[in-house]
Fold this protein.
Amino acid sequence: MEKKMSSQLNKPLEIWINEDLLLPGVRPAPLLMHLSPPDTNPELKFWNLLRDKLPDLVKIHRFTKLADAGKIVVTPHFISSYYSFKKQGEFYKFKRQVLGSQRTLVTFSNSMEFKPSQGEIFFASATYNDKKEKSIPTPQWLYELGEKVNISKPSIPTVGFVGNSEYPSRLNSLILRYIKFSDSMVNWMAGNLSVNRNLNLGRRMLIAALVRKKIINELRKAKNLQTSVIERKGEFFSLPLEEKKRQRAEYIENIENNAYILAMRGDDNGCYQLLEVMSAGRIPVFIDTNRLLPELRGMKWEDFCVIVPFSEVHRIGDYIQAFHDKLSDEDFAEVCRKSRAAFEQLLPHNFVVRILDIIAKSTN
């Protein structure tokens, strides 16, 4: 938890936003969350903690003419929102203008793969442990499941997963039919910054299908695990409401009933499921495709997370078993507690202090 504000933030940080880039009814970027109505969905109420905190941390100025803006300009929404509304052209035009004026542009990309520009402070959750990486790793916030009933240490590790393993596309289906991808090729594509930043979403879906099928197949082959895997295909958020509710309930039940839950990349090098698993106080089995994770304070990811390099996924059973065997019943309960504690540390109202500190240090 962030106990106090950084010395860089002894007064509210002044930021400027372009009113022409505000999208009505769309969730704003984290630094502007208090401009939106409070959330009432129990799985989203954690954003209200940030709304309460922000007025003391930031001072927002609005403008329509760039000449009226100060030195720190914040993009009002995640980049993906401009794509959803087919307004990415307006965003990129404005981005060029801001950077050309020698102002600092602060952008939040969430999970989409983007390359930061010179002079841009770029917060992203799809990141790479690569010297070329200029994005600043941030948590991938989606839902807060709420800490679930404590689970006792099982005699055999129980491992769950519910999620996409297929990403339907006629072209990708043809590619998979006629091209044999070696394990080394898939491993290279999965964790390569340049490959992913230069491929469109459709081709990254091919990577996601190859990666996820490989992981799930290796998990099922492990003889020392009790697995509960439900594979899906298609876009969850486009489903009819009742089917969406059914699948969501099935997903949550899978997390509740298993001690360990797979967390792996999809069509970008991020994973929404990672924080959801932590929010429930379960142990993530994080398949590392060269991802740069947010720094934790006072603990390490290895303290509560089974980390399996993708190149070693054929040994996933060994990694989970070794982690499991070193834990007493009390240790297991403590690991689950640490998983939840790390989630709370990464919640927006705590993590925002780090975001503001980075911006302040970069612009002083």
